[in-house]
Amino acid sequence: MNIVSERIKSCYNSLPASERLVADYVLENSDDLFQYPIKDLAAKSGTTQAAWTRFAQAIGYEGLKDLKGAYYTEANNSLRQNDNSPKVAFKDVNEYTSLQSIADNICATSVQAIQTTYRLFDAGTFKDVVTKIVSAKQIQIFGIGAAGIAAYDLYCKLLRIHYNVIFNQDYHMNLMSLSQIKPYDVAIFFCDNPKDKEVMQLYTLAKSKGATTVAITKLGNNPLTTSCDYILFATSPEIDKKSGVTSSRFAHLFLVDTLYTAIANRDYENIREYLKDSFEVFNEVQKD
Q1: Which of 13-22, 40-49, 237-246 has the lowest mean pLDDT?
Q2: Domain residue spans in the chain?
Q3: For the SIS domain, which residue ranges apply (predicted)?
Q4: Structure pTM?
Q5: Which of 51, 59, 204, 268 is the most core-located residue (most Cβ within 10 A)?
């Protein structure tokens, strides 16, 4: 599956009705993008030219021309999947017929989550986020539910290199820490559902305090992605919702590891002694 299709499917549920019609048309008739002008595409899809432009912008492109360019590039430089690798099957938890099929599908969704998130990687945005974190006086990290796993992982990694970092899963404690955040601080939000009221309340408070805001979330037009200072997109196949198995966790952890490594690389002269000290302490404990 190409990255344009991944972007469309990641944003699909948050699109207005008219833009969903465009999305449906593009997913089923992508070749038409190169055969017809926007006026004809609007007529064929039962929408308007404005809906096509809004749709292209909603999935991360400047307009239809930019979207066409992305499709063209994908067609000529697509990443080939190994034919022997497991393929994603969209099943509910009670529909598996063997342990092997369960393992195959979990593997496929986990790998695809990392691959598609990697394809959305924006080095420029990542560089800016790393710069803000390295220079921040304090980093506050927020994550609720499954997203909290990756948030906690980043918290532990930054603690290891002696950064001034705060993480707490209690909503009221988060409000308290945000009440003290400053414009030279950074607030990072891990979020699977940008419509979550608690996440948005925390984000709004951080924004009102003037802190630099970073979101690690899925594609889509919502208050988080449209007003956050920096966005690192994570996407994953949506399957097995009732099972509680979320491949988005792997997408988030991929970004955490990439972010932490980039921070440590940038700030190495200042943090190498902390890396050495923690390594030696862990080694000593293991010897005992």
Answers
A1: 237-246
A2: 3-76, 123-284
A3: 129-269
A4: 0.72
A5: 59
- Provide CB contacts within 8 A for 243, sequence distance 6+: 92, 93
The Cα 136–Cα 14 span in angstroms is 33
Residue 2 confidence class, pLDDT cut points 50, 70, 90? low
Place of tokens 């790998």: 111
User: What dotted CATH number matches 3-76?
Assistant: 1.10.10.10
Q: How far is the C-alpha of 258 from the C-alpha of 113, rounded, in Å?
A: 15
Q: What distance in Å separates the CA atoms of residue 129 and residue 140, rounded to the nearest whole number?
A: 14
Residue 63 CA to residue 116 CA, distance in Å, equals 22
Give the phi and the psi of residue 203 in degrees, each rounded to 5: -60, -45
More confident residue, 286 or 34: 34
* DSSP string computed for 116-128: HHHHT--HHHHHH
Q: Would you state the structure tokens that stand for residue 54, as one six-digit string? A: 């809004």
Q: Is the pLDDT of residue 81 over 50?
A: no
- Reported as a single tens digit per residue, the pLDDT across 55-68 is 988 888 888 888 88
Backbone angles phi, psi at 232, to 5 degrees: -110, 115
Residue with tokens 């966005």: 231
CA-to-CA dists, residue 183 to 46, 143, 273, 283, angstroms: 47, 21, 29, 39
Kindly list the distances between the CA atom of residue 264 and the CA atoms of 75, 234, 257, in Å, as whole numbers in the listed order. Answer: 36, 22, 11
**The CATH homologous superfamily of the domain defined by 123-284:** Glucose-6-phosphate isomerase like protein; domain 1 (3.40.50.10490)
Backbone angles phi, psi at 188, to 5 degrees: -115, 125
Closest C-alpha among 118, 142, 114, 124 to residue 230 = 124
Q: Is 178 exposed, middle or buried (0-12, 13-18, 19+ CB in 10 A)?
A: buried
Task: Please give the pLDDT value at position 125.
Answer: 92
